[in-house]
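Weekly structure sync, notes
Attendees: PL (lead), two postdocs, one rotation student
Agenda item 3: pending single-chain targets
PL asked that the sequence for the first pending target be pasted directly into the notes so everyone works from the same version. It is reproduced below exactly as submitted, 67 residues in total.
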Amino acid sequence: SELHLTHLQVKNVTNNPIDGKEGRIYIPDQEVSKLTLTSDIKGLKRERREAKKNKEHSKKQKVNPES
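Predicted structure, written out during the meeting:
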């Protein structure tokens, strides 16, 4: 019995003489509006807690470098 291989079509792959074999992958579009922000939330919560403790200093005050 002879093993018979058929040529399978290779999709999204190109051969470039400079770069060699290049492939493209599919990534679906990300819905940015549904993503949650995780970077600075911990710090923001800490600032809010400190503001509740010190109610008279709850807002950041501008500092004059001249005085």
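Discussion points:
- The radius of gyration is 29 Å.
- Residues 13-59 form one domain.
Action: rotation student to compare against the earlier draft before next sync.
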